[in-house]
Every structure is written in structure tokens, then in C-alpha cells.
Amino acid sequence: KKGSYDHFMQKEIHEQPHSLTTTMRGRLKDGGVLLGGLKEHLKTIRRCRRVVFIGCGTSYNAALAARPFVEELTGIPVTMEVASDLLDRQGPIYREDTAVFVSQSGETADTLLALDYALENGALCVGITNTVGSTLSRKTHCGVHINAGCEIGVASTKAYTSQIVAMAMMALAIGSDQISSQGRRNAIISGLTRLPSCVSEVLKLDAEMKELASSLIDSESLLVFGRGYNYATALEGALKVKEVALMHSEGMLAGEMKHGPLALVDENLPIIVIATRDACFSKQQSVIQQLLSRKGRLIVMCSKGDASAVCPNGSCRVIEVPGVADCLQPVINIIPLQLLAYHLTVLRGFDVDQPRNLAKSVTTQ
Ligand code: UD1
Ligand code: BG6
Ligand code: NA
């Protein structure tokens, strides 16, 4: 089943050009988006007061990656809920809400309990899941199967990128009645069609990420700074490193750097800064300058050709990635971090597919 790969996680990382293709298959039509599972409900969703994203772990991070483009393309306010925290707070959910539940397995206990809670409160409940016939798929009013194929590695990789793409198509479908943003939607649709080949290209960084992993093997901690479209990339990259490589890692909002994290910076702590091209680029350039002036040990992820723009004095390690439409860039940017986490795990001698203490599907509270 693993074919020529040593581990399922490795296989699943490398099959993303294919899994993303199957996620989109038959759904991008005549320059528009057709999601069979949502089309009867689009009118209701467009009228809702807010979208509430609910999930756990990597699925929560995928929803966080989707938040900026859902807000932009639909104009509907989006709030984020970790499923267990919504339940702990018994947070308000209303009939006028669209609650979007994101879960690879469709069987995560907290997510399903949050679904029961949202159903009781009368919200329209939408599922984004990889598992046809799962409890989530059955109990939600409607939804989208991401069709990424079976995922076996406990650390989610291909499901993450397919979830983001499914939510991008969902946002395009909800926003499709807005004439003024047709040009923007067309650009994103053409970005989606280019995505599998861009993913193939970024996967060529495999050897470079293995080399980077070998330089980090003895680090105690790894920080990842992101913002805007790539705040979620920072959280998800750090989650991969901690869950499989068993190394402490935190994803952080770069905009919060001065409010605490800056105190940690010295010449030893490795810090990844995500600084690919988008509206936040110049802000990230200034974050890099401030980290360098405190002798930070930086690894900067930037768009192809931007190495000297992000690190003029050449003192950072640079990861150059291909560019796609800004809101889809998280799909590309997570891949080097998946590869890094994978190689770090192998080099540190830990179990890749069955990380210590973790389970693929957490079906109890
Ligand atoms: C469906 C078929 C697909 C077929 C295509 C042809 C299924 C599972 N899918 O795909 O095989 O090729 O039509 O047009 O038979 N749903 C939920 N909650 C979820 C996910 C989905 O309620 O979390 C519902 C949807 O609202 C929909 C149904 O499940 O009613 C199938 O969803 P999906 O597979 O995404 O629909 P299509 O892409 O149209
Ligand atoms: C578990 C898995 O913690 O559940 C994670 O180890 C996953 O990889 C999380 O992200 C949520 O799972 P699901 O199936 O609801 O997406
Ligand atoms: Na359903």
C-alpha cells in the first residue's frame, strides 16, 4: 500500500498533486464552481448572519486558512471555534448562523458533540469531510466531500490541503452572485487549476527540507511566524513538528511578536518566518529586520526570486516557493513544512505514522 515510500505520511505528502486534482474533479465548470452538495442551500447560506467554523487539530487549522477568503468572497463575518471550547463555553449559536464542521474522519467526538449542539440551536449545519457515510456527513444538513482518498498517517497532510481547496470552492460558490468580484473569482479559479502543478513543483524541495531538518535535529524548540493568509500555515506547520517529530513548536501571529514572543529570540532558537508575496509582505519584511537585529536564527519562506528582498544581508536560510493566487498560497506553503516535519521525525528516530500517544481518530472525549 505504501508503494515505493517508507511511510504513509511521506506517501500522502507526495500524492497531493493527485489528491487535490480529485478534490476539484468535476467541480470547476465553465469558469464557475459547481458543488452538488451545496447548490440547494446557497441561498440560505448567503442570507445567514455569520459563518462559524468548528473543528479540531489540523481540521481547525484548515478552517482558519479558509477564514480570510470566505470573509472576502462572501462578505459574511466568520468566527472560529475549537469544538471542545465551544462545548466548554456553551457559546451562543443561532438559527441565523451557518455552522461549518470540518473533519477528515467525520467521527471526531468533540466535533460531533458540537454538531449536535448546533443542530439543537437551529443553525444550518454544513460538513466538510473526507469520509462518505461518516456520522458528520450523515448528520449535517448538507456539505462537501473532499475526495482526497483514504488518509492513513495519523498526522493529517493531504486532507489539510484538500479541505482548504474544498472551502475555497465553497467560498466561490457562495460569493458567485456578486458581480463586482467576478474578476477576483476568475483569478482564484485559474489559481485552483494551476494548483496541482505548483504542488508538484514545491515537492521538489524534499531534499532541501531533509537538509534543513538535519540542521534542526538537536533543537529544543522551533517557532513559526505567519500572518494574514498564512497565520494558519504557521499553526499547522508547528502542529506537524510537535505531533510527529516530538519537538516543541509554536505557530504565532507575526503581528503579536512584540507582545511577548520577542523575549524568546536569541542566536540559538530557530524561527521560521513565512513571507511569501501578499498584502502583508512589507510587514513581514519589517518583522524579519527586527528579528535579525536581535540576532535571531531565521529560516525565511518567500516567493521565488525574493531571497534578497526578504534577507538583504544573506544571513537567513531561505526556502523559495512557487507563487499562486495569494489566498491559495497556504496550500503551497504548508508543503515544505510537512516535508520538514517528516524528515525531522525520521532523523530523530521517532515513529512517523503512529506518533506517541496520538490516534488518527479521537472518538472519545
Ligand atoms: C455526488 C456523488 C459523487 C458523484 C457526483 C456526480 C456521493 C457521496 N457523491 O458528488 O459520487 O460523482 O455527485 O454529480 O454520492 N453531504 C453532507 N455532509 C457532508 C458532506 C456531504 O450532508 O459533510 C451531502 C451533500 O450535501 C450531498 C451529498 O452528501 O447531498 C454528497 O456530497 P458530495 O459527495 O460532496 O456531492 P457531489 O460532489 O455532488
Ligand atoms: C486527531 C488527529 O487528533 O484528530 C489529527 O491525530 C486530526 O491529525 C484531529 O487533525 C481531528 O481529526 P478529524 O478527523 O476531525 O479531522
Ligand atoms: Na448530510
From TrEMBL:
Look up keyword Ubl conjugation and say if it applies.
Answer: no
Name the Gene Ontology molecular function terms of this record.
carbohydrate derivative binding; glutamine-fructose-6-phosphate transaminase (isomerizing) activity
Query: What EC number(s) would the UniProt record show?
Result: 2.6.1.16
Name of the protein: glutamine--fructose-6-phosphate transaminase (isomerizing)
Gene Ontology terms describing biological process = amino sugar biosynthetic process; fructose 6-phosphate metabolic process; protein N-linked glycosylation; UDP-N-acetylglucosamine metabolic process
| Keywords for this protein | Aminotransferase, Glutamine amidotransferase, Repeat, Transferase
Pathway the protein takes part in: Nucleotide-sugar biosynthesis; UDP-N-acetyl-alpha-D-glucosamine biosynthesis; alpha-D-glucosamine 6-phosphate from D-fructose 6-phosphate: step 1/1
Query: Where does the SIS domain start and stop, copy by copy?
Result: 41-181, 212-355
Task: Identify the species of origin.
Answer: Panicum miliaceum
Q: Which reaction does it catalyse?
A: D-fructose 6-phosphate + L-glutamine = D-glucosamine 6-phosphate + L-glutamate
Q: Which residues of the full protein are shown?
A: 314 to 678 of 678
